[in-house]
Amino acid sequence: MTRGSETPDPDKIIEQMLDDLAAEPMPDPSDDLMKRVLADAAAHLPPPGGAPAAVPWWRELVQGIGGWGAIGGLVAATVAGFAIGLGALDATGVDAVWTLGYGENYGTELGLDAFGWALEEG
Amino acid sequence: MPLDAHLDVDDATLLARYARGDVAAARALTVRFVPRAQAQAFRMLGDGTEAEDVVQEAMLRLWRIAPEWREGEAQVSTWMYRVVSNLCIDRLRKRPRAGVALDEVAEPEDPSPGADERLQENARHAALRDAIADLPERQRVALTLRHFEGASNPEIAAALGVSVEAVESLTARAKRALALALKGRVAALGYEG
User: Residue A95 and which of A75, B114, B129, B183 are 20 to 30 A apart at CA?
Assistant: First the structure.
């Protein structure tokens, strides 16, 4: 079959090929295909009202620990423990901030010897 | 009750209804999408059985994605078109290329009138399908929507989320790529004097 001219235009040839393919008769979907598709739809049909929304990981973690009440208790206990710890350090007579190494007078007024004494003797 | 009693309901709404457990929405979506997908897959593959398998797989993906579908992000029809297109490409790439079949065109085995023409037509379609399969996805979708679905450039632009000028560029580049891919074979395919 000859469809072109002496000087065929590539664009026209491609257009012709596309038109030919588009004009190809299309078979109707078979009843079997429709049944298979509907069976898949039924098999994957979410429950009425929709599937439950996905729970974020952090919410699962909170619930695993015991809920927001338990989280509040944990925070309160942590703060209290920290405060008690600081208070106990005060009872030793050593400045807690100084002990942690952030005191302005470190190494000038007390000196390294005093630092060692404070730790060893309380 | 007819299968698609939801003609005035858009695709995304039907999909949302299916996601809430409405089986009637599934029937409506099936009636709406399967014939279109079947035609698209058949044009790309040229094989009815394979086309049906592709359609079933594409619809299965639609059912699975329904609960996570977000309205407004994409058109369901465009999503389906792309899924069917990509599933067809996967199958085409596993096939032997059509170039082998062209050698058989010159001497058809069937002596009945028109047999050689049918063979040549099959070879032409196969060669074109292979060349379309090798196009970049956006070019392929723009070209096939334009030529096989009869979509206008503004409709394609809306489906792809690009400008009309971009659609014109995509289809023009697609045709140039097809011409390049089929260069030297058009005579064997019966398109040149």
Answer: A75
DSSP code, position B96: P
- Domain of residue A77: give its range: 58-91
Q: How many CB atoms lie within 10 A of CB B47?
A: 14
In a domain, A66, yes or no: yes
Q: Using CA atoms, how far apart are residues B8 and B23, in angstroms rounded to an integer?
A: 17
| Each residue's pLDDT tens digit, B23-74 | 999 999 999 999 999 999 998 888 899 999 999 999 999 999 999 998 777 8
Q: Around Cβ A5, how many Cβ atoms within 10 Å?
A: 10
The token pair at B131 is 């060349």
Q: How many CB atoms lie within 10 A of CB B79?
A: 19
Same domain, A86 and A99: no
* Chain A residues with CB within 8 Å of chain B CB: 1-6, 8, 10-11, 13-22, 24, 26-30, 32-34, 36-38, 40-42, 44-51
Quick check: is A23 in a domain? no
Q: For residues B9, B10, B16 and B20, what is the CA-based torsion angle, rounded to 10 degrees?
A: 20
Terminal-residue alpha carbon distance, chain A:
107
Residue A109 placed within a domain: yes
Do residue A69 and residue A80 come from a single domain? yes
Note whether B125 contacts A41, CB cutoff 8 Å.
no
Cα B68 to Cα B138: distance, rounded to the nearest angstrom? 24
Six-digit token pair at B160? Answer: 């792809």
Q: Which domains does chain B possess?
A: 1-95 (1.10.1740.10), 98-193 (1.10.10.10)
Tell me which chain B residue has its CA closest to the CA of residue A46. Answer: B21
Tell me the whole-structure pTM to 2 decimals.
0.64
